[in-house]
Amino acid sequence: MNSLMRNILLKRSVYSFSANLLREEDLMAILEEGKQLSNVASNGAWYFTAIQNKVIMKSFAEISEFFAIKNGTDDFLANRSVIKILDNISTLLVISGSGDIKYTEDAANTLFGSMMLAADSYGVKSCWLGTRASLMEDNATAIAELLQIPDEYTPLCVGGFGYPIDDDGVKVTYMGNVAKIIR
């Protein structure tokens, strides 16, 4: 089995990380791999904000959770405390893009998925937390201000990275007959 397929099969979101911050070289390598993938919607650059400051993470979580509850969002983050999740993440990554937000948001989520796979090659685990539509739509301006994101960019996707507490027990799960081909 090739390494990419192995990584895809073993990829699981992790929500509990060690307290260790990502090594600078691991963080920079993951960001560099992300920078190589252009924003296909406008062929422009992405703007990455990597947050390791717990005070800023808490502020981000409070803004996000307030809006999830206010809007009655019935998603993962509304049902589970954003603040609690961020307590266990050493690095929060916000991907921002410019251009037609509908297509750029889809591309940002695809980009984060690629970065999750790349991170695994450095021993870094990850979890996808949400999108502009589910997490930040009504408060993208407040988040952009908090994170000092340039005006021409909109926060689109957020996820976490960190070193796993325990990587033992991760096994390939047989998915059974989950595909159907209609010809």
- For the termini, the CA-CA separation is 28 Å
Q: Label the structural class.
A: alpha+beta
Q: Into which percent range does the helicity of residues fall?
A: 40-55%
Give me the side-by-side strand order of the main sheet.
Answer: 1-2-4-3
Residue fraction in strands: 15-25%
Q: Which tags fit this structure?
A:
183 residues, four-stranded antiparallel beta sheet, globular
What is the topological layout?
Layout: H1 3-10, H2 24-35, E1 47-51, H3 54-70, H4 76-79, H5 82-87, E2 91-97, H6 101-120, E3 125-131, H7 132-136, H8 140-147, E4 154-162
Antiparallel strand pairs: 1-2, 2-4, 3-4
Detailed description of the structure:
- The chain has 183 residues and is α+β, with helices and mostly antiparallel strands.
- It has 8 helices and 4 strands.
- Helix content is 44%, strand content 15%.
- A 4-stranded antiparallel sheet has the order 1-2-4-3, with helices on both faces.
- α3 runs antiparallel to α8 (140-147).
Concise overview:
This protein has 183 residues and is α+β, with helices and mostly antiparallel strands. Helix content is 44%, strand content 15%.
